Amino acid sequence: MLKRLQRRFMAITMSFLALVLFGTLFVTYTASSENLDRFVDSSLNRVLNTTTPTRPYIGVQTAPNIDETIYGQRAVVWVDIDDETGDVELNDSAAIIGPRALEQVIDAASGEATEGTVEEYGVVWRKGEIPSGERIAMVSTVATSQVRLQQILTSIAVAVLVLLIASLFVWKLSKMVVEPVRLVWEAQSRFTSDASHELKTPLSVIAANTQILEEHLATIPDEDHRWIISTRDEAKRMQALVNDLLELSKADEATLASDAVFRRDLLDFSALVEEACLEFEVMAFERGRAFDENLTPDLWVRSDHGALDRVVRILLDNAVKYAEKGSTIKVVLVPEGKATARLSVNNQAKPLSQEDVDHIFDRFYRSDSSRSRSTGGFGLGLAIAKTTMLALDGDITCTSSAEEGTTFTLVVPLDRELT
Asked: Among 157, 170, 165, which residue's Cα sits nearest to residue 25?
């Protein structure tokens, strides 16, 4: 769980950094691209404006129009077409244009359009009026396109480098952030384990003494029998609670070091679920519930047999306890792609509220409608199941509705070599 928390912290932080970084680069690229376009526009307008010099300034710091000084310094080729004679005069003193590109520009400008682009040659043109007729100004955008491409490549390279450096920093930061959580988690788990172990001995003594008293009930007044029976029942409940706390402590410990707590044996998950279902079918039948199984065979996993079996039985036991009489409990086991197996346990009962669904895996949580003390539980079973599966690299989720009933879904990683 702590590793997942650390990975989630990294994912959120890196996503935010990537969003900010690429957003900044996008804004920078957009602004730069607009400046390049303005550079081209101003260069064309400089030639089309007959009141300003047609050629760029060289060796001066200012121009009659400050806009020309900054943006109008690109070499432009233009063609003047005389309206009366139809003569075409090419001015290529500032740059040279190829005959085929020139021909395409003149053809494109012969229509109603006043500007356009010849993509094949990377030429942008614009048409304007002059005293003798019209002028077509042309400028190459090849260099502009190369600048844009180079800026994109440079931005990507910088972004990747920054994200790599940031990921190392965020990884170390995530360890620092998770460390206090780990220490608190370990302290809580250690306290739960130590307290449970300390309670086992006096509870065993109470249970043993109560059993002795039960064997001599004939010598004890009838009005005192109820106290002995009550003590016995509460001792059994406390022993069950202590056992649950020990299981929860073990699951907590496994979240910190799963390899040291839970085994990773090769298991036939399908056979494990089938065996558990056979036992709970009898219990369900005695309570007036039916069982409907759909189990895909030969789904192999690497997990701890005892821990995984306990989780499956918790889900089946929960379904049998809370299913309505006469309803059918549906157990479905199917592969989900090649990576995981999905076990769903569905029972028809009064649907859980959204608040119950949000807290169903919380420790000692019971909803008023379906998780009462009369069922004999302490609200730890599903918490144990959730914590155990997180330690085994799986997960459990819950959904509930009046139409579909309540469904617990268990996801387990498959062994890719055998499945």
From this structure: 157
